[in-house]
Design brief:
transmembrane; mainly alpha; globular; single chain; disordered N terminus
């Protein structure tokens, strides 16, 4: 095997020499569990957890290291071009994107998301008032925390905030139930937007899925897909797996595209005009307060008992997020 001419084979890492110790794997996996749990509920951001855990800069560096040039070099190293397949050269490109860190982190996030979405799926069927009341509290407290950290001092910033609020308020007026029949294109777009937002501290990807009316749909789709996989091991059919996999795979593909496109656009917007961009993002959170109310109204309606349950759950959700914010000390949006 002949490595590409621009890389010295002596400098290429070996798989054995690059594998981190078990303790590092476990720590990163546990952080992934916390991030996934946060990403699974609206109002809490996995990016905030990454910031608290001290891995945010490493995560952003790993994501931004995935460039078209690096992907091309990786594929060329695995092809018979340039003198033959170069496995060490291909692996060297993976090391440049901190592959072991990403694998353990994504594994933790994936496990947590599966667990959280199952809980949400059951709660949405059994106690929608409590579930969406809890979400309302999370979103409201998140808005308070973000607004406290935001400084707006120009008409342009105010304008972007108004646009963000109106956009979220109008779009979140469509309930998840009404949006369940949306096309796979909408699922793909939801993946692009939701996943890209999950890495931004203070901005919840799940919240954006609620605004788009896709949160309950994707929670149900993931639960059904996991159930089909489990059933396959006990005599289920492959057809059930492939059918339930379609929306999940579509969402994941959209998420990958969004992670390397929309997330970069948001980062550039933050670099260009940080305060206006943050005003828009925070206003989205405020406008999204309409979504849980619409969900409860469409699912069960607001009677006295439902309203009391909704308010109680909202208080618990708000208290939960405020406690999280307390341990996070102060979220400085200027460091996002």
């Amino acid at each position: 095997m002949t490595p590409p001419p621009d890389r010295d084979p002596i400098d290429q890492p070996t798989i054995r020499g690059s594998v981190p110790p078990l303790r590092a794997w476990i720590r990163t996996f546990l952080i992934g569990l916390c991030m996934g749990s946060a990403d699974g509920v609206p109002g809490v951001s996995g990016g905030t957890i990454a910031l608290i855990a001290g891995i945010y800069e490493r995560l952003i560096a790993a994501i931004t290291a995935v460039t078209p040039g690096r992907i091309i070099r990786f594929l060329r190293a695995l092809s018979p071009l340039d003198g033959g397949v170069d496995l060490r050269g291909a692996f060297a490109e993976l090391i440049e994107v901190d592959i072991w860190f990403l694998l353990s982190l994504v594994a933790g996030v994936g496990v947590a998301v599966v667990i959280v979405t199952r809980i949400v799926h059951i709660a949405s069927q059994e106690t929608p008032a409590l579930l969406f009341g809890f979400f309302f509290g999370l979103i409201a407290a998140s808005a308070v925390v973000l607004l406290r950290s935001l400084t707006v001092d120009s008409p342009f910033q105010i304008g972007t905030g108004v646009v963000g609020f109106l956009l979220a308020f109008v779009v979140s007026g469509v309930s998840n139930t009404a949006a369940d029949g949306g096309s796979l294109v909408l699922v793909f777009i939801a993946g692009m937007i939701g996943v890209s937002a999950m890495i931004l501290p203070g901005i919840s990807g799940s919240l954006l899925l609620i605004i788009l009316g896709q949160y309950d749909r994707m929670s149900t789709a993931l639960t059904e897909f996991v159930d089909a996989l489990i059933a396959l091991a006990t005599g289920g059919t492959v057809e059930d797996v492939t059918t339930t996999a379609i929306p999940v795979v579509t969402f994941i593909l959209g998420g990958l595209v969004g992670l390397f496109t929309i997330a970069r656009v948001v980062r550039r917007a933050l670099d260009y005009n940080r305060r206006a961009t943050l005003a828009f993002l925070v206003a989205l959170v405020v406008g999204a307060l309409r979504a849980p109310v619409v969900e409860v109204r469409s699912e069960v309606g607001f009677s006295t008992d439902v309203l009391i349950a909704f308010i109680a759950a909202a208080a618990i959700g708000a208290a939960f997020l405020l406690v999280l914010d307390w341990y996070a000390v102060d979220l400085d949006l200027d460091k996002v």
